[in-house]
Specification:
Elements lengths: L14 H14 L50 H12 L4 H4 L56 E4 L7 E9 L2 E6 L4 E4 L7 E2 L5 H4 L23 H24 L1 H4 L2 H5 L6 E4 H9 L10 H12 L5 E2 L5 H4 L1 E4 L2 H26 L1 H6 L3 H20 L27 E7 L2 H15 L7 H14 L26 H10 L25 H15 L12 E2 L4 E5 L9 E8 L2 E12 L10 H9 L3 E2 L4 E2 L4 H8 L5 E11 L4 E11 L1 E5 L1 H7 L9 E6 L17 H23 L9 E7 L16 E6 L3 E7 L14 H19 L6 E5 L9 H16 L4 H10 L2 E5 L13 E2 L8 H20 L20 H38 L10 E7 L7 E5 L4 E5 L14 E10 L4 E11 L6
Parallel strand pairs: 10-17, 11-18, 28-30
Antiparallel strand pairs: 1-2, 1-5, 2-3, 3-4, 6-8, 7-8, 9-21, 12-13, 13-16, 14-15, 16-17, 19-22, 20-22, 23-24, 23-25, 26-27, 26-29, 27-28, 29-30
Helix pairs in contact: 5-9, 8-9, 11-13, 11-14, 11-15, 13-15, 14-16, 17-18, 21-22, 23-24
């Protein structure tokens, strides 16, 4: 029986619906199914991608195929082509879209019902839009601490500026990209550093596993707003858990809104910053004085929402927030000062708007806040005009002075003249601008950011063609928008004399809190107490009864000529009766034997975490009076000695640790060591760049020590031992980076490198003429990795061995400490580390004798990330079974912790005659170790992020001076640079982004432009001829434009 005619006029129904309904009627009238027939689902679905799936048809076998009047399909076309045409019409994903989804189900696996939700402004939207800029150096993907990587099922909070955060579950890691599935049913990508909060193990990984086939494998080509998303029946279980968690957090927030909305007034101090963890804040606000109360994940989310609504008042470090959950609660005085300036800017803008309407009336009604801004702007214009008589404003930095001064015994390279004073209102505005442009405190805070922009625009000094010099590629500021980002804000502070023309913003990182840069109340108290201790140190040696007198044994301290803090020395002795064996001793300074972890010097060291070294100045962890006068290695000084008995093949036979006193010290430089042993070292090519004048000679009273033949032989034996140690590590997969090195020295006075401390001038204006001399000495890199060592590596190998000895000794006794190791980064390579070594690395080494650049970069990435843990773990990057830093207790607080733990165990063993076991002493009334495992884990979470910040501070500061020297050489011709240079490509950026390169001759990192032209495809390991395109001193970036491909390793291997 045929279907009845449609009872409604067809003119009122669209042709697609007519055809769909007609097909449905025909199916109802045909009860006999046919095998291997394909039912085509018609009609475009607005919110769902449509996919084909084999299913039985209701058409009889002998019935003709249904004809789609809206989509004719000639029978002459192949079935695959017909299906492609049908897919295109119905709106399903095409082959181009599927190219980014390598795991997507194909053929018989195709499914219906993909979840495609509307794309509103959510924090899981993959597009970043016009987000307010932050610090470009916020790239902490390799924070060294356990918990570095997320695991499937971990729930995170995804945030974007100006949007409410949303919950998402971690699905998988692809290289540096983390993939998530959000509560809104979207897949999305982020970097680990952008994740500020995580709830471990919140969702069963079994629910996450089915999502993986629908996640993109090519993150560069996949679009979150594209066609392919997760099917709803796979996504709903996860979405429900995330949704319930979100609802519970909202419920807690509503119930406690009066408390949460006034959290700052309850927690803040008037003058002192307070440091509290998220758990502590939650217990204070919601615990109702119940000590046993513990916040649930939903309660923590509710508290985080309240804190995020007051992001400036509750400061957090995005580089470590996920791991530490620590918030710094700003003092109310600081917040009031910033918010006052914000009010002034609003009043000023309102006055300008009123003035445009009625100039006469608005002039009479000008508020005091608006007047403060007006007065400051007028003063700034005068100061900027004066500054530009002496220096040009560049993109992000002032140019060199038009006047220059030679460095002599009686004169310095710079001259400073002070001018008019700043008023109290001026000082408040300057403080605001420093927070905005120098310390980058307002990133992702649009209201504060806009105030900084408004002040700079009000001066009208940074608009118009040609105002800012040396813009890249001849670009000029947009006259409608102006150059009003933090780069121009920093330039503004230089031009009004607050910052010096050579200011290194690296040291102003809020998290560093360096002495003389940004003092906290706690740091002020520590410094004051340390000075009081200096008058009467009263140091007492807790290891005095256990010390071994090393007597006449010669200890060699091999360090640079200007080294002040000597942490370690080396000695070697043959094993009696065994010519092929010797004891290698690493003697390390032992300050921790003289004060415990509660001493004021310990507090100061914990605050500093490590010594900070920049070309212009150093910031020691311990006061110089303590380290140099009491603990730095010298004759008759106490040491903690790490001893290793080994044979000439590098096999470790025995290790031990013992406190002692060294009597005979010989100080050598690496160059002197090489000369004494007669090493025919390969001539290392060096390149020197100097700007600002002739480098002054440095004062030195050093005379080369005279060594006996026996002492020279001991140095040769140490060299033999070092080479054996490296061979053993290399066989274990260890790698040495061989990309050269650049030494940066800065001079303004004769005698020694460095600059006098010149803090920001907030009391009165300042005009500085002349510029410091900058010297760069680069050792040219020959390869991306180093396969052999020379005598300059003796100390490094000995220190690594001492750290292995310490880790082995402590590991045998289950002593918790800050052990170092490495973990493989998920998705870093298609092969596992072992597979990469066997299939690629070792065969390549055997064939070529060294690793190519591309293989070296790939191998280094596959070796993983360095982490810290409270128990031993392998360090595959170095090539050792375990590793514990112990050789720099004068410069690293983590080394001090290790010394305290070791000393406690040594005293226990001396007292009891038994081998110490930390697990067996847990139940004792009085703990033996200063740090329990739980305390050690907390210390790791606190110290690891700071260590990474300090490491990057040292690197970024040196690179800043490199960029400043290059700017003065390239734009102002203070030194000659080659027209073109050779650049190695280290990594290739995604579409429309720059690649990372390495400038071989000068041994510095650079950015490489991507040129959209044939023949300009960049590959990792390439060597290109390139020219300088731009130099941005503020961003510390040198950008190169590739010209010609010189060498491609893939073409010859």
């Amino acid at each position: 029986m045929h279907p009845r005619p449609l009872p409604w006029p067809t003119a009122h129904v669209c042709w697609k619906c007519q055809w769909r309904v007609a097909v449905q009627h025909r199916r109802l009238a045909r009860p006999t199914p046919a095998r291997n027939a394909i039912a085509l689902v018609a009609g475009r679905r607005a919110l769902h991608g449509t996919h084909l799936r084999r299913q039985p048809s209701t058409a009889p076998a002998n019935s003709p195929p249904a004809f789609d009047p809206a989509f004719p399909q000639p029978h002459s076309l192949p079935i695959r082509k017909r299906l492609q045409l049908k897919q295109k019409e119905l709106g399903g994903p095409d082959e181009e879209a599927l190219q980014a989804f390598g795991n997507y189900p194909r053929g018989d696996e195709m499914l219906n019902g993909l979840s495609r939700l509307s794309h509103t402004a959510k924090a899981d939207d993959g597009s970043r839009g016009n987000e307010i800029e932050g610090d470009e150096d916020n790239d902490g993907d390799d924070l060294i601490t356990i918990g570095l990587f997320l695991k499937p099922g971990d729930v995170v909070e995804l945030s974007q500026s100006g949007r409410e955060p949303v919950l998402a579950v971690f699905v998988q890691q692809l290289a540096l990209t983390s993939q998530f599935f959000s509560v809104n049913g979207r897949w999305c990508h982020s970097r680990l550093v952008e994740i500020s909060f995580a709830i471990p193990g919140a969702i069963d990984p079994a629910l996450v596993q089915p999502l993986i086939p629908f996640m993109p494998t090519d993150t560069a080509r996949a679009s979150p707003k594209g066609e392919i998303h997760v099917p709803r029946h796979f996504g709903v279980p996860v979405m429900e858990i995330l949704g319930n968690m979100t609802k519970e957090a909202e419920r807690i927030y509503r119930q406690n809104a009066p408390v949460l909305d006034t959290a700052y007034s309850m927690l803040a101090d008037k003058t002192r910053a307070r440091m509290m963890t998220l758990n502590q804040i939650a217990k204070t606000l919601l615990g109702k004085a119940d000590r046993s109360w513990k916040p649930s994940p939903a309660a923590l989310l509710a508290v985080r929402k309240a804190l995020n609504h007051n992001a400036f008042r509750f400061r957090s470090d995005g580089r470590s927030q996920r791991l530490t959950n620590v918030f710094a609660i700003r003092p109310t005085d600081d917040v009031q000062a910033i918010e006052t300036v914000q009010d002034w800017v609003r009043e000023y803008n309102e006055h300008k708007a009123a003035h445009a309407i009625n100039p006469i009336a608005s002039f009479q009604r000008q508020s005091r806040g608006a007047q403060n801004i007006s007065n400051f702007v007028e003063k700034a214009r005068r100061l900027i005009a004066t500054s530009r008589e002496h220096r040009e404003p560049n993109a992000g930095f002032l140019g060199p002075s038009k006047a220059s001064y030679a460095v002599t015994d009686s004169s310095a390279a710079t001259r400073t003249a002070f001018g008019e004073e700043f008023t109290s209102a001026d000082k408040q505005i300057i403080t605001f601008l420093q927070a905005w442009a120098l310390q980058i405190q307002f990133a992702k805070m649009s209201s504060f950011y806009a105030c900084g922009v408004a002040i700079i625009r009000a001066t009208e000094c940074y608009e118009g063609e040609g105002t800012i010099k040396n813009l890249p590629g001849g670009l000029q500021p947009d006259p409608n928008r102006g150059r009003t980002d933090t780069i121009v804000g920093f330039l503004f502070l230089q031009e009004i004399g607050v910052l010096t023309p050579h200011e290194d913003r690296t040291i102003y990182d809020e998290q560093l809190m360096l002495p003389s840069v940004r003092l906290s109340r706690n740091l002020e108290l520590l410094i004051t107490k340390a000075e009081l201790t200096r008058r009467n140190p009263d140091f007492r040696d807790s290891m005095a009864d256990l010390r071994r007198d090393w007597g006449a044994m010669t200890v060699y301290c091999i360090d640079g000529e200007g080294a002040k803090e000597i942490d370690d020395g080396i000695s070697i002795a043959n094993v009696p009766g065994k010519e092929s064996e010797y004891w290698v001793h690493v003697h390390v300074a032992n300050p921790t034997a003289f004060f415990n972890k509660t001493h004021v010097l310990s507090g100061l060291a914990a605050h500093m975490t490590e010594s900070v070294y920049t070309p212009q100045r150093s910031f020691p962890m311990l006061p110089k009076w303590a380290s140099q006068s009491y603990f730095s290695l010298d004759r008759n000084r106490p040491v903690l000695t790490f001893s290793t008995r080994m044979d000439r093949s590098g096999n470790i036979l025995e290790t031990k640790i013992q406190p002692g006193i060294v009597r005979k010290i010989i100080s050598l430089t690496p160059t002197e060591v090489s000369e004494y042993i007669g090493e025919c070292t390969q001539v290392v090519q060096t390149t020197k760049l100097v700007v600002g004048g002739e480098v002054p000679s440095t004062v030195t009273n050093r005379t080369r020590p005279k060594l006996s033949s026996g002492e020279i032989q001991e140095i040769r034996d140490m060299y033999t031992a070092a080479r054996a140690m490296w061979s053993r590590r290399k066989a274990a997969g260890g790698i040495r980076i061989g990309q050269g090195d650049v030494e940066v020295r800065v001079f303004e006075r004769p005698g020694q490198a460095g600059l006098a401390w010149t803090p920001p001038s907030v009391d009165r204006t300042r005009l500085i003429q002349g510029d410091p001399i900058i010297e760069l000495i680069a050792k040219t890199a020959e390869s991306s990795t180093q396969q052999e060592i020379d005598s300059s590596n003796i100390v490094e190998e000995m220190m690594i061995q001492a750290c292995q000895t310490a880790a082995s000794w402590c590991g045998e006794r289950n002593i918790p400490a800050m052990y170092r190791g490495s973990v493989e980064a998920p998705g870093a390579d298609d092969l596992s580390l072992e597979q990469l070594q066997k299939q690629v690395v070792f065969p390549h080494l055997q064939k070529h004798g060294r690793l190519s650049r591309s293989v070296g970069f790939r191998y280094l990435a596959a070796l993983g990330k360095a982490i810290a843990h409270s128990s031993p773990l392998p360090h595959k990057i170095i090539g050792v079974k375990s590793y514990l830093r112990v050789t720099s207790p004068l410069r690293r607080f983590s080394d001090m912790i290790a010394h305290w733990q070791i000393e406690a165990a040594l005293r226990y063993e001396a007292r009891t005659g038994k081998k110490f076991n930390a697990d067996a002493t847990k139940t004792t009334d009085r703990p033996v170790l200063p740090f329990s495992k739980e305390q050690m884990q907390e210390s790791i979470i606190t110290l690891s992020p700071r260590e990474k910040i300090i490491q990057k501070t040292n690197t970024y500061s040196a690179h800043f001076w490199v960029c400043l020297a290059w700017m003065r050489a390239f734009y102002y011709k203070e030194a000659s640079l080659p027209a073109t240079m050779k650049v190695w490509i280290r990594s290739v950026g995604e579409e429309n982004s720059m690649s990372l390169g390495f400038l071989r001759v000068y041994s510095i990192a650079v950015r490489v432009l991507k040129i959209p032209a044939d023949g300009f495809k960049l590959e990792v390991g390439d060597e290109w001829e390139a020219e300088v395109y731009s130099i941005n001193v503020f961003r510390r970036q040198i950008c190169m434009r590739p010209i010609r491909l010189l060498h491609r390793e893939s073409d010859v291997e």
